[in-house]
Amino acid sequence: MQAQDRAHRIGQSREVRVLRLLTVNSIEEKILAAARYKLNVDEKVIQAGKFDQRSTGAERRQMLEQIIRAQSEDDDEDEVPDDETINQMIARSEEEFDLFQVHCLLFFVNLSLTC
């Protein structure tokens, strides 16, 4: 999360893609979870409070409920993506996606021939 923010702070105007490679039960996974938690808390405090005193208690409550619902939807998306989904995430164009798919297919064909 910091890497993408840092790239834009130093003047990057083009698209930035940051790939995080995590293994299950690793320290990297725990660090990412802590960073997400901090961002989530920050969002809840700032968005629900708004600190401008113009929003009513009911508006703040509604905003907080929306944030909590969105968080629970995000939690559902924490499953391990398949190869095609990963290729879609990292491909910059349709042609690149097709190329990644071909490489995946060739990898698995070669793997099955050697086993």
UniProtKB/TrEMBL annotation:
This is Helicase C-terminal domain-containing protein. It comes from Gongylonema pulchrum. It comes from the Eukaryota. InterPro entries: P-loop_NTPase. The lineage of its organism: Eukaryota, Metazoa, Ecdysozoa, Nematoda, Chromadorea.
